[in-house]
Automatic annotation (TrEMBL), chain A:
<keyword id="KW-0812">Transmembrane</keyword>
<keyword id="KW-0813">Transport</keyword>
<feature type="transmembrane region" description="Helical">
    <location>
        <begin position="139"/>
        <end position="158"/>
    </location>
</feature>
<feature type="transmembrane region" description="Helical">
    <location>
        <begin position="285"/>
        <end position="305"/>
    </location>
</feature>
<keyword id="KW-0472">Membrane</keyword>
<protein>
    <submittedName>
        <fullName>ABC transporter permease</fullName>
    </submittedName>
</protein>
<keyword id="KW-0997">Cell inner membrane</keyword>
<feature type="transmembrane region" description="Helical">
    <location>
        <begin position="259"/>
        <end position="276"/>
    </location>
</feature>
<dbReference type="GO" id="GO:0022857">
    <property type="term" value="F:transmembrane transporter activity"/>
</dbReference>
Automatic annotation (TrEMBL), chain B:
<keyword id="KW-0547">Nucleotide-binding</keyword>
<dbReference type="InterPro" id="IPR050107">
    <property type="entry name" value="ABC_carbohydrate_import_ATPase"/>
</dbReference>
<keyword id="KW-0472">Membrane</keyword>
<keyword id="KW-1278">Translocase</keyword>
<keyword id="KW-0813">Transport</keyword>
<protein>
    <submittedName>
        <fullName>Sugar ABC transporter ATP-binding protein</fullName>
    </submittedName>
</protein>
<dbReference type="GO" id="GO:0016887">
    <property type="term" value="F:ATP hydrolysis activity"/>
</dbReference>
<dbReference type="GO" id="GO:0005524">
    <property type="term" value="F:ATP binding"/>
</dbReference>
<dbReference type="Pfam" id="PF00005">
    <property type="entry name" value="ABC_tran"/>
</dbReference>
Length: 351, 503
């Protein structure tokens, strides 16, 4: 009796969204597999903690890509924004906080740097949104262009060299563990993800985004302000990328124009794997979060096999993603067909 | 003994348990012009697709040129001389006329290399068959609808064609173009080619067909000669009911003007449009396709900036610079194309109902008040009798009539003063059609000003207090439905008579 009440909610959820349920099964299988073949590593707390420090880098970027893809667009410039904003933050810290600065001076410097990086990210995102919605260039071209543009700005500012020598306080803050357990980057990711969930599912803004992504013409004919909505969407994505940039800055303890270049396509693949329709209008936050975690566990798991050289990593990533997507897409369509058939029957009965 | 091109017997076809065709018989003789008529959803398209091999029937036999087929494939149908001209003509708009004409032929011959000289020869031969004069190098996308259609017909004739099926070929044509098309059809007939002409217009059945077949709800109703048909019988065959043309009781007096349009002009589309819409009145606007009726609606909805003229809403001069301006001034628009402009098909019924008034349920912090949203959805589902078990189902699970109610609900929820409907009952079943008419009548009684744009003549006469006729962007007549017959209105629209009737 107790087990049914315990399972009834997850089961209802799974029925309502079989795709997310399937991602969950993949996640559990993956963890179980690594627990069996690399028991010691995967039972160690440190493994999980280091994962919690790493995945927020691309996880935060993926959240931004997700929200643009729900409107039917895409954001390929997240890595460019992250590097440009982290370089801006690093430059400010380096100039405002001399090596012999007091604790108070360092705090002020860091806060200003963080604020500037977030504002820069927002402006960069708004610029993307402006080009997509007002100038009406396809998002894939706009953000491919701005990826180069932002990276170019970053290269010019730094002359291609890393900026290091950040105040120790910055690294200590991001390197801290909440209650001695939860790494700060993970905490940041959780907070941003929850905020994103509220925006998408509790605010009318999110509701409008789904409508816009489903049918932009009908949305316009219903009086939605699509240009404003798109600018806001890309601004949110820019801010997410800037936060990711701050995490990158702490993890590398330096800023450089070409950190995380592999993340551009990785984030797109994560979002698609998470069940977001590249044509817009469909997709859930939960699916994307699961996809982020799956990718991180896969990556950490592979690290524990010294025999598998890092050269194999892109091959394994690509392969796993393609396999998962084709299985899920195939089944997804199968499920959908089954569901619509049931519904048309119901509808006939009703009418 | 007349030769039979194709004959189908006891044809049945179901989709997801719904019978689209149910024991249909049809026989088409060589060189015959046969009209196939039926309402939307009667099974006309399914029948065409079975004859041309696109769908396999569940039951029944098809005999093509004397050979029996249990299963006809598209290739067998084409080899047997069956060609279909669909409403979209299945042409490549970005290619030239020559390429469009020759491409299929070359492909079917299995040629892998392009020989432009051969292309030109084939194309010339094709247009010569119907005396069609056109620039072979023109891009097909730039041609008029009528010329596109002739390209499609020429292309169909490149094969050894015995039967051409035309799916509602006159829908987008002007009167003169329809006449030209009819001449082509008669020419084809004289060369022994049979035509299956799909239509739901009585006038066309009379004018062109030698025999007609009417189907309804997938069943054959009658196959007969046009001489035995009159308007009342036709409507009865099509709808299965005795259609009573009861006019709405129009109010003796109407309220204050809600919308005054004066000298409205729009480059290349509208010229000097002047009219007044009163509260509590249903005003009809009609005209041929391209007469400016849709442009007028979209201008009033803020989509096109006007070049000249004034628009006053409730006596106040307004500038409609965008859809949001129009909505803010209490103007609502039910679009012509429900599927692309009216609905977000994959989203829920509830989402589609509340989309235009989302800001009403939003707290200053942007949070949605889901309780109020739910009560609003419940209210409209009940008020407009939207047939659904659950308003969270996607709107594409609904029938056309119920989808149109969702679009109506979306706009009524914004509490408009002026409701503009473009083709309010296109693709809607008859039951829903009369329900929608009743809803409109109620709304007018409640004091709303309503504009119905339609080319459905009975609908206009039945619902409107006055009807404006547009031609080439100008108002050419205003008629009083009480003193106008269907024939008179039809003649006025097509320009057969120009003087005002019953003005």
């Amino acid at each position: 009796m107790e087990s049914t009440t315990l399972l009834s909610r997850p089961l209802a959820l799974a029925r309502r969204d079989p795709y997310v349920a399937r991602l969950f099964v993949i996640l559990v299988t993956l963890v179980a597999f690594f627990l069996i073949v690399r028991t010691d590593n995967f039972l160690s707390f440190g493994t999980w903690q280091s994962m919690g420090v790493q995945f927020p880098e691309f996880g935060l970027m993926a959240l931004g890509v997700m929200i643009t893809m729900i409107t039917g667009g895409i954001d390929l410039s997240v890595v460019g924004i992250a590097n440009m904003t982290s370089i801006a933050a690093a430059s400010i810290m380096l100039s405002m906080v001399p090596p012999d600065a007091s604790g108070g001076q360092a705090t002020v410097g860091i806060l200003v740097a963080v604020a500037v990086s977030l504002v820069t990210g927002a402006l960069a995102g708004a610029f993307n949104g402006f080009l997509v919605s007002v100038v009406k260039i396809p998002a894939i071209l706009v953000t491919l262009g701005t990826l180069e543009l932002f990276t170019g700005i970053a290269i010019i500012i730094t002359a291609g060299k890393p900026l290091s020598g950040l105040p120790a306080l910055y690294g200590q803050t991001f390197g801290a563990r909440l209650f001695g357990v939860v790494p700060v980057p993970l905490l940041i990711f959780v907070v941003v993800a929850i905020a994103m969930g509220v925006v998408m599912h509790k605010m009318s803004f999110g509701s409008k985004l789904y409508m816009l992504g489903t049918n932009a013409t009908a949305a316009r004919f219903s009086g939605l302000h699509s240009a404003r909505l798109l600018i806001q969407t890309y601004t949110i994505s820019g801010v997410c990328a800037a936060i990711a940039g701050l995490v990158l800055l702490a993890n590398y303890n330096s800023a450089k124009a070409d950190y995380g270049v592999a993340y551009t396509l990785l984030t797109v693949l994560i979002v698609v794997l998470g069940g977001v329709d590249p044509n817009g209008g469909k997709g859930k936050l939960l699916g994307v979060v699961l996809a982020i975690v799956i990718l991180q566990i896969l990556s950490s798991g592979l690290n524990m096999f010294p025999a598998i050289s890092n050269f194999y990593r892109p091959l394994i990533y690509g392969g796993v993603l393609l396999v998962v997507i084709s299985i899920s897409e195939g089944k997804g369509r199968f499920w959908k067909r089954l569901n619509t058939r049931k519904k048309t029957k119901e509808e006939v009965v009703v009418s | 003994m007349v030769e039979t091109v194709i004959s189908v017997r006891d044809l049945s076809k179901s989709f997801a348990g719904v019978k689209a065709l149910d024991g249909v018989n049809l026989e088409i003789r060589a060189g015959e012009i046969h009209c196939l008529a039926g309402e939307n959803g009667s099974g006309k398209s399914t029948l065409i697709k079975v004859i041309s091999g696109v769908y396999q029937p569940d039951e029944g036999t098809i005999e093509l040129n004397g050979t029996r087929h249990d299963k006809l494939t598209p290739i067998e149908a084409i080899r047997g001389g069956v060609q279909v001209i669909y409403q979209d003509f299945s042409i490549f708009p970005n290619l030239s006329v020559m390429e469009n004409l020759a491409l299929n032929h070359e492909l079917s011959q299995g040629r892998k290399l392009v020989n432009w000289r051969r292309f030109r020869t084939i194309a010339k031969e094709a247009i010569a068959k119907i005396n069609f004069h056109v620039d072979l190098d023109a891009r097909v996308g730039d041609l008029s609808v009528a010329d596109k259609q002739l390209v499609a017909i020429s292309r169909a004739l490149l094969h050894d064609t015995k039967l051409i099926i035309m799916d509602e070929p006159t829908t987008a044509l002007t009167n003169r173009e329809v006449e030209a098309l009819f001449r082509v059809i008669l020419d084809l007939k004289s060369r022994g080619i049979a035509i299956l002409f799909v239509s739901h217009k009585l006038g066309e059945v009379f004018e062109i067909s030698e025999r007609f077949t009417i189907i309804r709800n997938g069943k054959l109703v009658v196959t007969s000669l046009p001489e035995e048909l009159d308007h009342k019988k036709f409507a009865h065959y099509m709808t299965g009911r005795e259609v009573d043309d009861v006019r709405f009781e129009q109010p003796e007096t109407v309220g204050e003007p809600v919308l005054e349009v004066e000298g409205l002009g729009l480059e290349g589309a509208l010229e000097d449009i002047t009219f007044t819409l009163h509260a509590g009145e249903v005003l009809g606007i009609t005209g041929l396709l391209g007469s400016g009726r849709t442009e007028l609606a979209l201008t009033l909805f803020g989509l096109f900036p006007t070049d000249s003229g004034k628009i006053r809403v409730k006596g106040r001069a307004v500038r409609l610079g965008g859809i949001r301006d129009a909505i803010a001034n209490g103007i609502a628009y039910v679009p012509e194309d429900r599927l692309t402009e009216g609905l977000m098909l994959e989203r829920s019924i509830a989402d589609n109902i509340v989309v235009a008034e989302l800001d009403e349920f939003t707290s200053p912090l942007g949070m949605m008040d889901s309780t109020r949203r739910q009560s609003e959805v419940d209210r409209w589902v009940a008020d407009l009798k939207i047939a659904t078990a659950n308003a969270e189902n996607p709107v594409n699970t609904l029938s056309g009539g119920n989808q149109q109610r969702v679009v109506l609900a979306k706009w009524l929820a914004t509490n408009p003063d002026i409701l503009i409907l473009n083709g309010p009952t296109v693709g809607v079943d008859i039951g829903s059609k009369s329900d929608i008419h009743l809803i409109l009548q109620d709304l007018a009684r409640g004091g709303m000003g309503i504009i119905v744009i339609s080319d459905d003549i009975p609908e206009l006469l039945q619902t409107c207090r006055r009807i404006l006729i547009l031609d080439e962007g100008r108002v050419t007549a205003e008629v009083d439905p009480d003193t106008t017959t269907e024939q008179e209105l039809s003649d006025l629209i097509t320009g057969a008579i120009t003087a005002g009737v019953g003005v």
